[in-house]
Amino acid sequence: MIKNGFAYLILGENNLRLKKIQTSNQRFVVFKLETSSQQIGFNTALIFFKNIKVQCLLLTEKSEILSHEQLFLSKALDEFGVVGKIHQNTITSSEGMAPLFLIALNNKTIYTYSLLLSNTGEMLFLNSGKKKIDKNRLNIKNIGNYINLAINNHHKYRYQLNNYIGLYFKSSPDIEYEYKLNLPNTTDIWQIQQYFVRSLRQGKIPGYALNLLRGITRWTFENYLFEIVAPKKERGYISFIRTPNNNYIIKHKIYNKDRLKRIELRTRDVKIRGSFEDYLKEKYPGFLFKEYPMFIRQFYGFVMDSLDSGNNFGFTVDRNYIKGSNYPNLIQLEIEYYNSLKLTGPNNFYKELAQVTDIYKKHLTLLNIPFESTFYSKLSYLKDCARNKKCPTRIFSS
Predict the structure, then answer these.
(1) pTM check: above 0.90
(2) When comparing pLDDT for 386 and 164, which is higher?
(3) Domain extents in the chain
């Protein structure tokens, strides 16, 4: 994380995202930000602009400071055209002045970032490149050179940076990596989720931020699970999750025991015309299934982004109970590798996933909430219910 000193937020004509134009042909607005009030990592940066007063500099085509003043960053970014209204005689542009780049310094290295997306109060930037310099400070007199560096770095990857959704990727999309923490039956899953969201927003989990695209998710759904007993190499389960349009999400998980790494094949919006048994017999001939009672899963979740590595991790806290049974609820906190956001470099997330899980363990300990580290699956929960004669089961072949 970059914490000491200042960073420069650059506003300019939006067409700079599309074609390379040197600063000698452009005017810019520059906001000087204290890095200690932001979340600037070596891969991604999250800039907060609510209630933050900053120095605003207007630059001529020769990168000379035309004027400067103190103003609230939110006023400049939220109110359309406010910079142009304040300085009508100095800035005129058919394109308008839009946030483009972020420039920061750490250990005599300049890091440039390009804007990916924003919402009310936050902007997400992705690192586009870096360059070593002689001094460990940014000089406003050299701002034109810094902006040119940001423009050049952006244009090396402009198609990716201008279409940010395509930058998100997942190593081995059909493999799930997930740690689980079993929590007491009395756990309030909403309060647990809120605690960790607040901790992320308040910077109490350094180096990580709440994912802007996902936000906070909430689900309560019916889950119909069928264990795959045979063939042996296909052992695991297939579950049917009913969606609001009365179609189904079908999850096919393949694993021979509860573990960190499992194959997960997922199909969405499937229409089931007959029974689940009919569907399984048609799609999976030669399989032996064991049917368990339907259970309800209620959960809250979010994704947290690593600002230094670009790896993103899913957080889910859920309550599971078997309809019509007095078998105890299962309450779990699940931490999984979700996806990555980066332009270059290897995608190593295994060690970091374990480190993130340890972070959650430490916070639960601070909250005096006991937990059990496990890979305990929903299938094992249903098996234990059946073993205790609280859940009927049925075996059939396809």
Answers:
(1) no
(2) 386
(3) 6-166, 175-397
